[in-house]
Structure formats: structure tokens, C-alpha cells
Amino acid sequence: MIGRLETKMSQKTAIVLGATGLTGGILLDKLLEDDRYQKVKLFNRHKVEKSHPKIEEYLIDLFEMESLSELFKADEVYCCIGSTQKKTPDKEIYRKVDFGIPATAAKLCKLNGIHTFLVISALGADQKSTFFYNRVKGEMEGAVMEQQIKNTYILQPSLIGGKRQEKRPFESAWKKVMGVFDNLLFGKLKKYKSIHPAAIASAMLWLANNDYKSGTIESDTIKELGNHP
Fold first, then answer.
1. One Pfam family name from the record (predicted)?
2. Which residue among 79, 102, 153, 202 is least enclosed by CB atoms within 10 Å?
3. Residues of the chain with confidence (pLDDT) below 70
């Protein structure tokens, strides 16, 4: 407890994977504005479209992160990597992205003594699922938890709202449907309400700087945590 409070009082270094994505981009902005952080390391395939003195960017093949283990050092790691079956129809490549990258990042955290790891999964993740997408997410969660990183937070958002750069016609249509049905979801069903990426980013930042039980966090709780000042 004392050690974590001391860490929070000093300026920290964060690693962000997926900063060019929707949620990762919002998270990056929040980290750059936060005085608790002096450096934000980015490991990307493509350069982010912003310049800031806190940013330290490495353009790499994310499938080969282990070769840069000496650079993978920070106080916290935020993994916002994720694809869709439509965007990545090849199941082998999809698995390398949604399972391989987060699992490797967790291993590097363990190797380098990083005690806080946060990763975005999905509501319904289940390694025993008959659905490929849910099964891969569930297997990723299992691989991450196996590393036994002290502060491990696996966020399971429902459908993520917000505007993306790439076109996802089916997802856009489903968001419109969910916009109608969100108001009808109460009680145990409220976790299925769509969620804005800013809420996810805010929740991740709050979790990294406060004491909270490690494990999976479902969408409705993510919203609640994202409302913390």
C-alpha cells in the first residue's frame, strides 16, 4: 500500500499499445495532460499524429515486441490493441493480434518488474466459448492472468461507441440499434449498454492510480470508474 502511494506521488512512465486507435488515442491525450506522468512510451506500427515532449515513440512490428524487451520498461502498461473479424478475416492473424500482442506484453511486464498492466478485452470473453472471437478474448485473459502481475485489470466493455477513422458498416448500424435499446437495459442487463471510449480511457487511468482489486471489470463498472474525478 505504502509503496504504491509513493509511486503515485512521483512522476511516472507509461507504455501505451494501440495509441493510434480510438480508445488508445483518447487515453494518450489524458496521459499527456496528467502531471503524474513524465513520459509516455508508444509502441506502434504507425506514427501518431501528434507531437509532445512526453512522447517517446517506437515504430515496430508489434508481433516482435520481445526483441525490444530492454525498451519495454515503465511503471504501467496500457494495452488498447484490438481488431475485428471483418477487419482481420484471417483467423491466424486475428489471433496473433488479439491474443498474441496482449499476452506478450504481459510477459514483458513480468520480465521487467512492471506491476500494473491494463488491457481491453470484451464483454462475453470466454476461453470455452464456441464463438471464435469470444474464445480468443477469453484465452488472452487467461494468458494475462497467468503472469500474476500484481495490479492486473482486464476491462470488458460492451459495444464501444465513438467515431472511428476506418469504416465499419455493420458496427455503425449496430451502434444505432444499441442507441435505441440502451435506455431499455436495466439491472443485470445494464452492462450490455454501449460505452464511450472516453469512459474506458478514464477508467483505465483511474485504476492505474488507485487501489482496486485485480481481475476482470465489466462494462457497467467501467462506466462507474470512468466517472471518478
1. NAD_binding_10
2. 202
3. 1-10, 162-192
Domain definitions of the chain by residue range: 2-223
Rounded-to-integer distance, Cα 67 and Cα 76, Å: 19
pLDDT at 82: 87
Tell me what pLDDT residue 1 has: 47
Give ∠ CA 169-99-57 in degrees, rounded to 5: 85
Strand order across the beta sheet in which 12-17 lies: 55-59, 37-44, 12-17, 76-79, 116-120, 151-156, 215-218
pLDDT one-digit tens code per residue, 173-211: 544 544 545 554 555 556 658 899 999 999 999 999 999
User: What are the cell numbers at 11?
Assistant: 512522476
CA distance 8 to 2: 10
CA atoms of 223 and 19, how far apart (whole Å)? 21
Q: Does domain 2-223 fall into CATH 3.90.550.10?
A: no
Residue 228 CA: distances (Å) to CA of 87, 189, 198, 209 = 33, 22, 12, 11
Cell 494468458, residue located? 143
